[in-house]
Specification:
This protein has helices at 2-10, 12-16, 41-57, 117-124, 142-151, 179-183, 299-306, and strands at 31-38, 60-71, 74-85, 95-102, 105-113, 158-162, 165-170, 173-176, 188-189, 194-198, 202-203, 208-209, 211-215, 219-226, 232-241, 245-247, 256-257, 266-275, 285-286, 310-318. The protein is α+β, with helices and mostly antiparallel strands and 319 residues long. The chain folds into three domains: 2-66 and 78-113, Acetamidase/Formamidase-like domains (Endonuclease I-creI, Roll); 117-183, no CATH class; 192-318, Macroglobulin (MG2) domain (Immunoglobulin-like). α4 (117-124) packs across α5 (142-151).
Amino acid sequence: MRMKLLLILCSPILAFASPAWMFKIKYQESIVIGYGIGFSLEEAKKNALSDIIDSISVDVKSVSNITTHVINGKVKKRVSTNIATNSQLHLSGVKYIKITEEKGRWYVAAKYDNAPFAVRFSKLIHNAKQNEHQNSYLKSTSLIHTLNNEIKYTLNYEIIRKDNLWNVKYKNSILPLNQENFYQLFSTQKGHNLNIRANKEVYKENDEMYFNIQHKTAGFISILYVEHNGKVGVLLQNYSSRKNFRYPNKTSSDIFKISNPYGHTIYELYVAIYTPQKIDLHEFENISDTQLDESNYNFHKLVKLLNTHTYSTYTVKIQ
């Protein structure tokens, strides 16, 4: 690891004064061990985490973006691959396995399972013996498809918000999602009697966005969207419609302009819901000129709502 070399070359006193167990812990191939030294426990833990990140990010990786489309119940995938160096990682599931203090210095070893999410989740499940009913939206996402293939059973997974992270839950087993895993829950799906499409798949700053809604039966249409972080906003609520329409329409004073304040590419999910009667969406916040606040991490509630209504979804990329 690069950090180990820096410790040895730049700080020989620290390296040779380290406990005998430092840099000698061994685990199976997918486990990454990080070591940290500091004058406080917090500093040592931070350095151990940095060591793990450094170890993972020095390699050039092939990153595949998988977009799933569901048409008439059939899943179709489109895969694009980019070669990039991942220098900033959000790690969840890091465990500190060894901590000692000697002569005013703290020594820490941490471990992180760098196996794919589905492999790590399969290790948590020991009693899956039969297929179960799955959420109608989740079962068509690439993340749940991968879990089904790895575990060999279709299980009733949930998406929950815990410790400021999104997690996949099955009974008592919970595993946090990083951003890449979370995006695998964004899936373009066409409903049997409903279809939403944006005017583009890829947007840039200040691009105009609008939607074409197709539906076969008169009723009420609501449109919601999910930000990259799982916050949910309402664009249109209980719009009475008898035929296909564009939103916003060409004569409307409302214009949607794309904004991306994050400094990197993000993905968003747009959802149309059809109901024969008006629907109560009080759990979700109407959008405003400002970003959705911290109370709107409601993706899990939207997933449950879709399980009981006719819906269509569309994923967009914002550069």
